[in-house]
Amino acid sequence: MKSSPRQLVDGLLAGDRAALARAITLAESSLPRHQELAEEVLERCLPHAGGATRLGITGVPGVGKSTFVDALGVHLVRDWGETVAVLAVDPSSPVHGGSILGDKTRMPRLASDPRAFIRPSPSGGSLGGVARATRQAIALCEAAGYRNILVETVGVGQSEVAVADMTDCFLLLMLPGAGDELQGVKRGIMELVDLVIINKADGGNVDRAARARRDYESALHLFPPAPHGWAPVVGVCSAQEGRGVREAWEIVLRHRAHMQASGWLLRRRAAQARRWLFELIEGHLREAFLRSAGVRERLSGVEALVEAGSLSPLRAARQLLEAWDPASKGRTR
What is the pTM of this model? Predict the structure, then answer.
């Protein structure tokens, strides 16, 4: 990275997309020097962040998330004159660690618009398919002037708590024909959603989408009301044909107005910042633990004993923690 943090921040605040991309790359890097630079850039950008509408979008593979995001983003930039940043988190291979990073190819109209910024990022195996640096990327995009942040998750069903915990509104995309699908929806995610949209309500799916809407509305009424007073709304759309996208965004705006008026938007953002703090602490502690000379000396042997069943994971963890020297900072003996 040739730019200094000040130059990078100046370019980013001026709306330089290349500077924004470089700043996010620093945030995603695992190199200690890059992490230090990313921290400095973020500190300078935070006073300029926080003003965007943050929408998390999830759903099972095949539900049309990228098509929906493309349609919604085009609606915002062309009909509302808005700016949009899409943080599309791709799945990383659990074997090789690679990811496809093909979201731009699935959002052709939005990708060609200068008012939109699309950043595909590898999930790195993080829970819920949310990249490690996504929280930083949200703040950086806001500082760069993007008024709407759309976070599209992998939707692998592990834990959508991650994306719900870094956005203002959480949208779940579903396919028409609730029936057995409704039985398979996890209670946890239904308790997190602010908005459910039945996508692909076109062709022969129109009637099935209407029935699915009624089924989901009935199911959501079984949950206790949220403390902030917002009752999840169910809508239908055809992202492919562009129908229902405007109505979906209007619901997002109603949700934001409700959260602002009730004071819950600020409370949610404050709670998210607090959890971000502890996520960072846990991550740094894990890295420091694994870099410790005492731990590195014993780790492979302890792992072998655990795999052979001759040492319990509980005792193994205790032994490694006792071998940890936090002051070593990765020094070798």
Answer: 0.87
